[in-house]
Structure formats: C-alpha cells, structure tokens
Write a structure and sequence with these properties.
This protein is of the alpha+beta class. The chain contains four helices and three strands, in the order αααββαβ. 50% of the residues lie in helices and 20% in strands. It has a three-stranded antiparallel sheet, covered by helices on one side. β1 and β2 form a beta hairpin. It is rod-shaped and about 95 Å long. The N and C termini lie far apart (84 Å).
Length: 140
C-alpha cells in the first residue's frame, strides 16, 4: 500500500471543484447564447411577417387597369405595423421602423436581450437589429 504524500492531499477535490466551476460557466454562457439566438429568430420572424404584410398593399385599381404592381405607401406601413401588433413573441421588441420606397417594403426590428450569467459579470444586455424586405409579386 502506498500512502499519499502529505502535500498531495485534496488534489482530486480541487480538480473536481474546478471542473464543476467550468461546467457552470459553460452552461451559463450557452444559456445566454441560446436566449440571444432565440430572441433574434423571433424578431426576424416578426420583421419578415410585417414586410410581407406591407408588400400586400398594392394599388388594386392600377393593377387592374395597367397590370402594374404599385404599392400604396401609407397602406403598406399600416399593414406592416398591424402585423407587428398581432405577433405573440415580441417581448424583446423595443422598436420598429417601416420604410416604403417604390416597390420595396423594408422593416427594421430592434430588440434587447437580457442576459443571465454574463450579466453577473457586469456585461450589458445585447442589442439585436433585424432587417426584412419584401416586394409585391404576381401569383403564378
């Protein structure tokens, strides 16, 4: 039987404690990253839906007369904002911009994601900005 040397007592305990601390840190960071990606995906879905709704605001009379797809800018913005108001997953949403230029509807959604573990390290929350564009198209 080999007796442990006096200066090696507790080495395994320190290793296990260090590994547990590293696992806690990695788990916390992965949780924060997952939350950031999830909120970004929800904001992107909100912006995409709003841009598509805005792109549906075509001038129907002009389309019937000439076959031209022309957007009604005020109606497009109204539809895009109404689409955002109907979304369910918008708790990270902090602001929305809707721009209609020519035949393009651009929606910019801005959000903020609160962190947990990284917030303990005095890191600021993450600002997220998502842009979606849509144009009216003829059905095939």
């Amino acid at each position: 039987m080999n007796a442990a040397r006096p200066n090696e007592r507790g080495t395994i305990t320190l290793w296990i404690l260090g590994l547990c601390l590293m696992m806690f840190l990695l788990g916390g960071i992965s949780l924060d990253l997952w939350r950031s990606f999830s909120e970004r995906r929800a904001l992107a879905a909100t912006a995409d839906a709003a841009a598509l709704a805005g792109a549906s605001a075509i001038d129907e009379d002009r389309y019937r007369e000439s076959g031209e797809l022309v957007l009604l800018p005020e109606r497009a913005e109204e539809l895009a904002r109404a689409s955002v108001a109907r979304q369910l997953d918008t708790h990270a949403l902090r602001g929305i911009e809707v721009n209609v230029t020519g035949e393009v509807v651009t929606v910019v959604a801005r959000g903020r994601v609160s962190l947990t573990l990284l917030n303990l390290l005095d890191t600021a929350d993450v600002d997220v900005r998502v842009t979606a564009t849509a144009t009216p198209r003829r059905s095939s």
